[in-house]
Structure formats: structure tokens, C-alpha cells
């Protein structure tokens, strides 16, 4: 019996005679998988360089067995576990949940808050942590060419399976950075801890756009 298309993507160390002879199969001796573990389903997460990375063909579930969003790369990883993006802890033995972060965020017209919607996977039980948005700006000092300015930050706590729109408080320096600009590029960093105490962090570039008055 063949498994569903999105679960059967790689054969490991098995001869073609076993029936694993599709173009998407990879006959290898070392699949480069992490330790067996994790919640709520134990998995073996692909490590860096694993032939399972981005190997799934066709449609795949929106999340892996633990609730990590799929795909993280150009395609879904083969198997029950998706390797999280850079910044997340490696291995399958209890990873923190991965939260999707929009690349474009809306800033209030009065420059007081920035809206950020986050969803906590049900498998995490609870997601809590801190969000911080930082922008690198030019500095007039001869000793330092650039400096980092905190645009906004906030702490959050979201129940598993729920979503929440956070209102990040814009700092005085953040309001100053918007002078003469309607949009800015910045870097968002997010820390996350689930109900089991697994910790992780994520970061991505974001575009901040001020709403019209």
C-alpha cells in the first residue's frame, strides 16, 4: 500500500526492489535527522543538509505534526517534521512553536502603535514572549557610521489555537524616524515560549507603512 503523496517522499537506504523508485525518492545512507522527540507528536526533524529538505512534491498540509507552518523553504520537507527557519532551535526534541510574521505592518496615523497579528498553534498550548522592531539608521558621528533605533516593542501571551492582534507601542525615537517618511524598512525580532517551556526566536525584515489620516 502506498502512503499519501505528501508523506511518501524519500526512501532511506532501501533498494529499488522495495518499490521506492519514484523520481522524488532518495536512496541515501544518512538522512541527517535530529533526535526523536517533540510535542504533541514525536518526530525526527531534518537537519541542515538533509535530503528531506524541500523534497515534498505536490500539495502538503499547512502545518507539520507539531503545528510548525509549512513550507519553510521553497517546498515542504519530506516526512512528518518541517525544519523551522533560521533562528529556531535545531532538532526534534521539543522545539518552540513557529509563528507566522507578516512582511508588511500597518502603523497608526498618530504614530502611537503598530498592528501585528500572531496566531499560536494549538499544539503549543500557549505562546508568550516579546516582540521588538529595530531600524538601523545612519549616524553623523565619525566613530560609528550606523546605530540601531528601537521603533516599537510589546510583550504578548496567546492561548494555543487562538490568534491576537498586538498593538506595539511606538517609541519616541520611532516617531522621530518617521519624520518625512510614510514607510520604513526595519527588522522584527520575536521571542516565543510555549506551555511546555520550549524557547525559540525568529526574525525577519518588515515594511512599516503609516496609515493615512
Give a description of the structure.
- It is a single chain.
- With 213 residues, this protein is mainly beta.
- The protein contains 1 helix and 9 strands, in the order E-E-E-E-E-E-E-H-E-E.
- It folds into 2 domains: 1-95, no CATH class; 104-210, Sandwich (Immunoglobulin-like), CATH 2.60.40.
- The protein has one helix at 172-177; strands at 33-37, 43-46, 104-107, 113-119, 126-138, 146-159, 163-170, 183-193, 199-210.
- It is elongated.
- The protein starts with 32 loop residues before the first strand and ends with a strand.
- Mean pLDDT is 80; it is low at 1-10 and 86-93.
Distance between the termini: 61 Å
Question: How would you write the strand order of the largest sheet?
Answer: 3-4-7-6-5-8-9
Strand element count: 9
How do the helices and strands follow one another from N- to C-terminus? EEEEEEEHEE
- CATH class identity of the largest domain: Mainly Beta
Radius of gyration: 21 Å
What is the total number of structural domains? Answer: 2
Biggest beta sheet summary:
7 strands, mixed, barrel
CATH topology category name of the largest domain: Immunoglobulin-like
What is the approximate shape? elongated
Amino acid at each position: 500500500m502506498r502512503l499519501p503523496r505528501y508523506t511518501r517522499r524519500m526512501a532511506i537506504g532501501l533498494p529499488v526492489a522495495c518499490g521506492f523508485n519514484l523520481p522524488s525518492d532518495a536512496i541515501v545512507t544518512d538522512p541527517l535527522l535530529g533526535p526523536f522527540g517533540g510535542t504533541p507528536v514525536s518526530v525526527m526533524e531534518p537537519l541542515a543538509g538533509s535530503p528531506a529538505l524541500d523534497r515534498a512534491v505536490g500539495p502538503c498540509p499547512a502545518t507539520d505534526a507539531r503545528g510548525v507552518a509549512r513550507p519553510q523553504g521553497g517546498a515542504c520537507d519530506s516526512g512528518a517534521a518541517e525544519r523551522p527557519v533560521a533562528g529556531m532551535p535545531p532538532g526534534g526534541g521539543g522545539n518552540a512553536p513557529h509563528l507566522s510574521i507578516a512582511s508588511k505592518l500597518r502603523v497608526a496615523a498618530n504614530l502611537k502603535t503598530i498592528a501585528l497579528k500572531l496566531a499560536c498553534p494549538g499544539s503549543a498550548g500557549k505562546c508568550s514572549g516579546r516582540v521588538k522592531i529595530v531600524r538601523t539608521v545612519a549616524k553623523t558621528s565619525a566613530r560609528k557610521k550606523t546605530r540601531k533605533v528601537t521603533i516599537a516593542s510589546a510583550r504578548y501571551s496567546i492561548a494555543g489555537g487562538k490568534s491576537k492582534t498586538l498593538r506595539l507601542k511606538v517609541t519616541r525615537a520611532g516617531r522621530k524616524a518617521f519624520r518625512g517618511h510614510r514607510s520604513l524598512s526595519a527588522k522584527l525580532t520575536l521571542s516565543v515560549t510555549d506551555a511546555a517551556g520550549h524557547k525559540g526566536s525568529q526574525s525577519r525584515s518588515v515594511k512599516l507603512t503609516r496609515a493615512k489620516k
